[in-house]
From TrEMBL:
<feature type="domain" description="DUF2470">
    <location>
        <begin position="10"/>
        <end position="85"/>
    </location>
</feature>
<dbReference type="InterPro" id="IPR037119">
    <property type="entry name" value="Haem_oxidase_HugZ-like_sf"/>
</dbReference>
<protein>
    <submittedName>
        <fullName>Putative heme iron utilization protein</fullName>
    </submittedName>
</protein>
<dbReference type="Pfam" id="PF10615">
    <property type="entry name" value="DUF2470"/>
</dbReference>
<dbReference type="InterPro" id="IPR019595">
    <property type="entry name" value="DUF2470"/>
</dbReference>
Length: 94
């Protein structure tokens, strides 16, 4: 079985998220990364267990690791999981 999260898959997902869903990444950092002062964030990589972000907090770049609630099977599972996480995060925003 091939690695569902090859560097190419991670790069493709990160590029899409950074270009089209920057607001969602900042929300992940604020809610799941326990970094409520995050102004913006970028997704650096994603694997079956979690994602690595860098958050901009008070003019500092802070690395964050956010673990998923399950091991992802493939990029489609990642897609659905990221959508579910942003929906969940939005319910926690005050």
């Amino acid at each position: 079985m091939s690695d569902p999260f090859s560097p190419e898959v991670s790069e493709r997902i990160c590029k899409h998220m950074n270009e089209d869903h920057a607001d969602a990444i900042a929300l992940y950092a604020r809610i799941f990364g326990n970094a409520p002062d995050t102004k913006e964030a970028q997704m650096l990589s994603i694997d079956a267990q979690g994602m690595n972000l860098v958050a901009q907090i008070k003019s500092e770049s802070i690395p964050l690791r956010i673990e998923f609630d399950h091991v992802l099977k493939d990029s489609e599972d990642a897609h659905h999981t990221l959508i579910d996480m942003v929906k969940q995060a939005r319910t926690q925003v005050k």
